[in-house]
Predict the structure of YkuD domain-containing protein.
Amino acid sequence: MISQTLRTRFVPAALAVALLGTGMSVATAQPAAAQPAEAAPAFAAAGKKKAKPKQYLKFVKNKKNPSNSRLHLMAAGKKKPVATWRAGSGNGSTNACKPNAGWLPNGSYKIKFHKKNFNGDKIKGYVIKLQDKKCSNGTKRTELFIHSEMKKNGKQGPKKGKDSPWRWDGNGDYKSLACIKLKPAHIKSLFTKSSAKGWPKTLKVV
C-alpha cells in the first residue's frame, strides 16, 4: 500500500521533470479535464412572444340608414380612428338574423385573409374575408366579406345597364347581401393604410 502511494505521488513529478527537459511547459501537459469548465447558463432563453396586432377594424352601424354606416381603422389602445370610410352592410334590413339581407351581427370577427385579386362568383378584386358568425337566435351567417364592386384586377368594369356588379354606379351600391361594402377608392385606401402598420386581425361590429 505504501509503495503504491509513493508511486502515485512521484510519477507525476517525474513526468513534469521529463517534460521540462524537452521544453514543454507543465501547464501544456495538463489533461483537458483539469481545465475549469465554463459555467452553464442559468436558464434557457425564453421564447419570443407573439407581437400583438397594432390595428383593428371597427364597423359602427347607423340604424337610421344602414348603407350610410362607418368603417374605422383603429390603432390599438387609441380612441381616435386612424381613418374612417362610409360603408354599408345588408340591403337596408336591420335584422342581423336574416341571411343575405340583414346587416352583420354585433360582436368580434376574426379576419381570415385579405386579397387584392379575389375571383369569386359575386365578389371580385379587393376583399377581406371574415369568419362565420351566429346571430342572437343561433342562425349562422356565412360568406361574409368586406368588399366593393370591381373586376378581379381591381379596375372598374364597363357600364352595363343601370347597375353593373363589377362597377360602382352610385350610393345604391353600398347595399349588399349582408357584407360590408365600400367604394373602390376607399377599400384600396383601407388596404394601403392597413399594410403600413401591420394588418388588422379582427373586426368589431357595434
Remarks:
- Residues 2-29 form one domain.
